[in-house]
Amino acid sequence: MIKLILPCCLLFIFCLTACTPEKKQEQSNAAAIHSEKQDFLIDTITAELKNPWGIAFLPDGRTLITERAGEIRIVKDGKLLEEKIQGLPSPIYVKGQSGLLDIVLHPDYANNGWIYLSYSKQVADSGGTVIARAKLEGNNLTNLEELFSAQPLTSSEVHFGSRIVFDGKGYMFFTSGERGKKENAQNLGNHLGKVLRLHEDGKVPTDNPFVNTPGAKPEIWSYGHRNLQGLYYDKATGILWEHEHGPRGGDELNIVEKGKNYGWPVITYGINYDSTIITDLKEKEGMEQPVRYWVPSIAPCGLTMVTSDKYPKWKGNLLVGALSHQLVARVEVADKKFVAEERLIEKIGRVRAVVESPDGYIYVATENPGKLLKLVPVE
After folding, report:
1. What pTM did the predictor assign?
2. Average model confidence (pLDDT) for the chain?
């Protein structure tokens, strides 16, 4: 009897050791998302955010996330902390699409400690996009400096833009939406519907394209934009990528260049929300064509380029977040031209931010529900 039991026990132990890892592997594979070039898992870091907008990674391992209502949340060791960053600018104009928006570290943050913020500043019953910088001591912002305020202020609650990027050469680019008034985009006498360029300390570069144009705002780098919610500077090529919301249809992915006119509202691939025609023109001499446009709209928000070796077959591709279709799309480009698009994930919540962390992982922030997601590659 004992001789019979012993082989059975050994067989049972063998099955446990040999079969269990295989089962775990099957479960892992079942959870993986299969894309054309890279399989990956979605790791939910937190699902307790409220309208997140911008993401920044501190050298000490903490992650800062702006919430539009006027908070900066802290994620540490994979957990959302109860304590929040204090000392934020006040008052922040929080109406409609306005509020506390982007957050970006200076390229030399390790040495100078500057954190840059974009937010909507309230003045009486109006508001406008502001760029400011501050330093972080513990959980408190100090040395707050307002570097720029978009003019004119308006009571409109839409189209603030507010993305910030650095080129690593001493310059900062940022976006300002046309605040829901089409005519602002073509008017060089205001900051609305523009990409703007400043030195990192807020001073105006003398080589900006409209510095010597009478009546023009000297901070303007490009114009003819609508509602710009994605900006990425590719340091390898010097290309400044931007995407913006069209009206009903006509969302655009653009390469932004010095002094160029991107057409809104003179040319567009979209129509009004009530189905009426904005313009019969889709192109015009002296106005730039998008690299890619979307009809129907996806409402793009959040933009990055994959530079990490963790996603080798995505390297050099743009990742575009979207509000309307609640997706992240992988966009292949070559020689400044659109090649292909793949929708990696959909119905995950309204995507507000897509960023690559210093250690090479892709993070996505969504609202409704308010989550921070990490895309983990699967080999």
Report:
1. 0.92
2. 93
Question: 159, 225, 243, 325: which one is catalytic?
Answer: 159
At residue 48, the pLDDT reads 98
| % residues pLDDT > 90 (the chain) | 90
Q: Which pLDDT belongs to residue 8?
A: 42
Token look-up 């954190």 returns 115
* C-alpha span between 143 and 164 (Å, rounded): 19
**Would you state the structure tokens that stand for residue 273, as one six-digit string?**
């929300």
Whole-angstrom CA distances from 262 to 219, 246, 256 are: 17, 12, 8
Please report, for the chain, the start and end positions of each structural domain, with discontinuous segments joined by +. Answer: 52-297
| Residues 56 and 64 sit within 8 Å (Cβ to Cβ) | yes
The fold adopted by the segment(s) 52-297 is Neuraminidase (2.120.10)
199 in active site: no
Dihedral (C-alpha) 81, 87, 93, 96: value to the nearest 10 degrees?
Answer: -10
Q: Over the stretch 229-253, which tens digit does the pLDDT of each residue have?
A: 999 999 999 999 999 999 999 999 9
CB hemisphere CA count around 159 (13 angstroms): 23
The DSSP line for 22-91 is: HHHHHHHHHH-B--SS-EEEEEEEES--SSEEEEEE-TTS-EEEEETTTEEEEEETTEEEEEE-B---S-
CB 220 within 8 A of CB 196: yes
Q: Are 194 and 160 in contact (CB under 8 A)?
A: no
CA distance 229 to 259: 20
